[in-house]
Amino acid sequence: MGERRRGGCCPPMDLMRSEPMQLVQLILPVESAHLAVSYLGDLGLIQFKDLNAEKSPFQRTYAIQIKRCGEMARKLRFFRDQMSKAGLATPARSLPEAVLNLDDLEVKLGDLDAELVEINANGEKLQHSYNELMEYKLVLQKAGEFFNSALSSAEARQREYASHQSGEESLETPLLSELETANDSSKHVKLGFIAGLVTREKSMAFERILFRATRGNVFLKQAVVDEPVIDPVSGEKVEKNVFVVFFSGERAKNKILKICEAFGANRYSFSEDVSKKTQMITEVSGRLSELKSTLDAGAVHRRNLLQNYWNNLSSGTFCIDVTKKCLVAEGWSPVFATKQIQEALHRATHDSKSQVDAIFQVLYTREMPPTYFRTNKFNSAFQEIVDAYGVAKYQEANPGVFTIVTFPFLFAVMFGDWGHGICLLLATLYFIIREKKLSSQKLGDIMEMTFGGRYVIMLMAIFSIYTGFIYNEFFSVPFELFAPSAYACRDPSCRDSTTVGLIKVRDTYPFGVDPAWHGTRSELPFLNSLKMKMSILLGVAQMNLGIVMSFFNALFFKNSLNVWFQFIPQIIFLNSLFGYLSVLIIIKWCTGSQADLYHVMIYMFLSPTDELGENQLFPGQKTAQLVLLLLALVSVPWMLLPKPFLLQLQHSRQQGDSYAPLPDAEESLRSEANHDSHSHEEFEFSEVFVHQLIHTIEFVLGAVSNTASYLRLWALSLAHSELSVVFYEKVLLLAWGYNNIAILIVGIIVFICATIGVLLVMETLSAFLHALRLHWVEFQNKFYEGDGYKFYPFSLALLDHEEE
């Protein structure tokens, strides 16, 4: 859904919460209803409700008129297509100058439709005849050249034979002369021939099949037609060859005819007589000239007909006068669009010269409004990522705001390589630079999705370049970009090692990972350890963000129970365990401690009172662990027990109060949006308790599994790096080591193909899907319900786009 800019009435976009909506009622006089609907369709800011949902389509008041209008709309689309084919521009919608009755309009459209259909049918027949004559003329010309050449060759041979006969006979003179053979009719072999045209791409197969079917008992001559010709059957321009097949016998003729039919070869009759051939070419040329004049006159007539009729239709609008009553409509619209809708209704009243103005009024309801986020071409793709999981309910916190940053960043953590990121960025810039041209073209399904997410891919590429600088990887190769490595070998024996025998000789590498810390294959290198711990930190941070968003949702909808018995115990449980682990990781990085964090976390549960020994990272760590473990254990019944009993108490109080003050409209909408369908049913304590038990178990187990799930960031990053190393060392460097230019070229080609196909396509898709899963499952399930429905306004622009 694109951003709408209508004058200066629209407030700034707020993606955190959906636009405030209102249910409005429109009372439209019949004489201005058609214009009002048209102007509201141009505005595209109101979603109409079906007020006759209980009736079938055939029971509705305007069923017959709608059916007639649908048929007329089909005819109008047909006229517009015909105008496009004729090269006529369709004029933009203008203010009406006259009102046409539906019956008069239907008669005019029917007459035009019938006349156009007849003109098109006649034109197609004439064009078909013209195309056939064009092919026939080519056959006469090209095949005539075959016979002329053969006749000239025969006359030359006859003259040569006559000159030899004047001399003395020798031992080499044949016993039976050619002349005698020619005069003996009993020795004649009557050859038949078939001439026509076959498509050039099938000509070789056509010749091969003819030879095999007749066992070589045919003689085929072909000539290339210089320019493409229009095929009479398909109507498309095709490159063709003229052919002549000489054969003997009726059986061979039948085989050749079947082969011509199978290959779509058009056959034409032909005479061997030179005088008849010249006469036929003259006749065909004359008929072609006549048909060309007729086709040109028909095209001019058709063009004038379309132009005149469209001018007449576009100068008026259409009124359905069934009754003299008013029409009532209800629909949802954004609050900011109130003034624009009222202006459109006033304009419709003025333009239709109606004596009665349309009525616009806001209705108060407890029905859930649709969700509407105003987006633009940059953030619309991020919003679609969220909506694919589920549409936010009315005024619910929107994860799309955070997705703009967190989604490309988590992708880049798995895809971090600034060489690959640059390649991805260059490919995306192509779509962005040419977006105006590409947006008006019909692309394939995959290209359409790629083009729609071009700004998502751009941010993914930029973040990948950033994380690639942090990992210090360019196609898996580390570079000393910002400074020399801070480490050097203690002696020459450590030259091939990157983790053993190194001493620090300079200041710390200023940005990212030191090139020396790209470890060997035999041990877990520092970079992989960094990625693993960083995955846990990112996961805990994003899950905390999700829980905080649930807190803001509870405050916004004024749900104090969720604040005290959902947000607080959840944040305590998560951070008592995994928040504490994150703190230990940071302390270990800062202090350089050799403590085993696996041992610390396991024995925090198994032996919480044992001494930590060498695994102690800070004073008072044992006491802090006991307190955190106690808080984690307390938070579980805190989530489970109080809320069902408090809900039962709240329900009993509501039943005891016969009367209560009515809330205002906005508060009622928020409270209604916060309650599910069970709020209208009878309260069942057992159902509520079981639901809360499931929710508690899901969160406790999910906190563990979701944290482990974030380790996919480390796993995917490791896989991407290892594949890059394999392609670099086993393909590029291996080819370089042969000192052979041919092998080097082949190696470079294989390296480029593998990089594009595996690392830039498959790995990009893999990292994209894993980042999608982390947002949908690990992040959004902490606060996002996604059980709303989208705002689909009535828009003529969208209808035109769907028709195209």
Short description:
The protein is built from 24 helices and 14 strands. The protein is of the alpha+beta class.
Structural features, described:
GO terms for molecular function: ATPase binding; proton-transporting ATPase activity, rotational mechanism. It comes from Sesamum latifolium. Keywords: Hydrogen ion transport, Ion transport, Membrane, Transmembrane, Transmembrane helix, Transport. The chain has 804 residues and is α+β, with helices and mostly antiparallel strands. Helix content is 59%, strand content 8%. It is built from 24 helices and 14 strands. Strands 2-11-1-12 form a 4-stranded antiparallel beta sheet. A hairpin with a 6-residue loop joins strand 6 (229-230) and strand 7 (237-238).
Chart the SSEs and their pairings:
Elements: E1 21-28, H1 30-43, E2 47-48, H2 63-85, E3 98-101, H3 102-165, H4 178-183, E4 192-199, H5 203-213, E5 219-224, E6 229-230, E7 237-238, E8 240-247, H6 250-262, E9 266-268, H7 274-314, E10 316-319, E11 327-334, H8 338-351, E12 359-363, H9 380-389, H10 400-415, H11 418-433, H12 435-439, H13 445-452, H14 454-471, E13 487-489, E14 502-504, H15 526-556, H16 560-591, H17 597-606, H18 621-640, H19 642-656, H20 665-674, H21 685-709, H22 712-736, H23 741-779, H24 796-803
GO molecular function: ATPase binding; proton-transporting ATPase activity, rotational mechanism
Pfam family, one: V_ATPase_I
GO biological process, one term: vacuolar acidification
Helical residue percent band: 55-70%
Number of helices: 24
Span between termini = 17 Å
Mean pLDDT: 82
Placed side by side, the strands forming the largest sheet appear as 2-11-1-12
Q: Structural class, from helix and strand content?
A: alpha+beta
Largest sheet: 4 strands, antiparallel
Computed over alpha carbons, the radius of gyration is: 41 Å
Low-confidence blocks of residues: 1-12, 94-98, 168-183, 315-323, 520-524, 658-668, 675-680
Number of strands: 14
Q: Report strand %.
A: 5-15%
Query: Per the principal axes of the C-alpha atoms, what is the gross shape?
Result: flat
Subcellular location: Membrane
Membrane topology: Multi-pass membrane protein
Protein name: V-type proton ATPase subunit a
Transmembrane segments: 409-433, 454-471, 534-556, 563-587, 623-641, 741-762
